[in-house]
């Protein structure tokens, strides 16, 4: 069974008293300040695998159920009853790499004493079909609502609705750590730029806005400024903070249901009023190219692109610049 190893740091000059060895990617070693992120996120300093002592003074061995990379983070699930889940998050701030080890407790996520409604969203008749991006891990299930989930690749966003064969609305889901890392490395700007090409879109964050100002591993002002800049640059793509994952799922359902109803109404208006261009029609006059079209253009232009899956944001930027 794989183990997470925690040993004493033999370097007397280091301010980080422990060494953490993670059994993934051939083995990763970090200097850190604690044996588990119980009350706060622990700063980790990555070091060479050779820095792991030949005869380490082991402080704790944590048997693992799983340990694997998920985007800019490593998800660690321990084989024990308590303190099971943690995450080693890689991010960049002020031009340098920073790594933090955090657990669900260190996030101090708000748990409002509310019950989400089970009433069907206004305007929906029967089941609402929500398309979930095929790359989305641990996707919302929309349990308790009359929703039919279908998986397919989306050019942008994690959840969407389709009307008359066209994606008319999409929602990008973010945890707070995801939001911070994608803001600092600029990938969120590209994602929001793609969302802005849809008739309706939004970004939903599974956390309170106030938690931005409690961040320890990046300057809160940098994150707050990035959120504000995106709101000004792309006013048609709101960024919504919803406190918890459950509330984020509920908001996503209501938003997509309202967008589906709106798009159907717009289509009817466009058909009944000759010469009247609805908001949906305006969006159709300049349709977003499919991923396959952009991939074919990139190959003709001599750019390196994968055979399947999402394309890098810079490929989309170069396509738009060329057209």
What does this structure look like?
It is a single chain. This protein is an alpha+beta fold. Helix content is 28%, strand content 28%. A hairpin with a 2-residue loop joins strand 7 and strand 8. The chain is built from eight helices and 14 strands. The protein has an eight-stranded antiparallel β-barrel with strand order 1-2-3-4-8-7-6-5. Strands 10-9-11-12-13-14 form a six-stranded mixed β-sheet. The longest helix is centred in the C-terminal third of the chain and has 28 residues. The chain has two domains: 104 residues, no CATH class; 137 residues, 3-Layer(aba) Sandwich (Rossmann fold), CATH 3.40.50. This is ERCC4 domain-containing protein. InterPro entries: E3-bd_dom_sf, ERCC4_domain, Lsr2_DNA-bd, Restrct_endonuc-II-like. Keywords: DNA-binding.
């Amino acid at each position: 069974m794989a183990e997470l190893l925690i040993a004493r740091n033999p370097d007397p000059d280091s301010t980080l008293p422990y060494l953490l060895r993670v059994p993934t990617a051939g083995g990763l070693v970090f200097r850190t300040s604690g044996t588990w992120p119980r009350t706060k996120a622990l700063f980790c300093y990555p070091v060479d695998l050779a820095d792991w002592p030949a005869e380490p003074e082991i402080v704790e061995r944590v048997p693992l159920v799983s340990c694997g990379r998920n985007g800019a983070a490593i998800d660690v699930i321990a084989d024990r009853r308590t303190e099971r889940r943690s995450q080693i998050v890689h991010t960049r701030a002020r031009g340098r790499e920073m790594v933090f080890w955090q657990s669900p407790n260190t996030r101090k996520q708000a748990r409002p004493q509310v019950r989400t409604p089970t009433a069907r969203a206004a305007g929906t008749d029967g089941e609402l079909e929500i398309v979930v991006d095929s790359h989305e891990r641990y996707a919302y299930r929309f349990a308790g609502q009359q929703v039919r989930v279908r998986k397919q690749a989306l050019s942008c966003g994690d959840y969407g609705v389709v009307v008359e064969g066209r994606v008319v609305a999409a929602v990008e889901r973010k945890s707070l750590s995801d939001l911070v890392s994608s803001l600092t490395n600029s990938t969120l700007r590209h994602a929001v730029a793609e969302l802005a090409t849809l008739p309706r879109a939004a970004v939903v964050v599974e956390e309170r806005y106030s938690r931005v100002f409690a961040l320890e591993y990046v300057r809160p002002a940098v994150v707050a400024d990035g959120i504000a800049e995106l709101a000004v640059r792309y006013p048609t793509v709101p960024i919504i903070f919803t406190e918890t994952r459950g509330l984020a799922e509920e908001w996503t359902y209501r938003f997509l249901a309202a967008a589906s109803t709106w798009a159907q109404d717009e289509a009817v208006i466009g058909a009944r009023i000759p010469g009247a261009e609805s908001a949906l029609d305006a969006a159709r006059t300049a349709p977003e190219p499919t991923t396959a079209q952009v991939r074919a253009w990139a190959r003709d232009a001599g750019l390196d692109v994968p055979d399947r899956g999402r394309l890098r944001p810079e490929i989309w930027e170069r396509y738009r610049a060329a057209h």
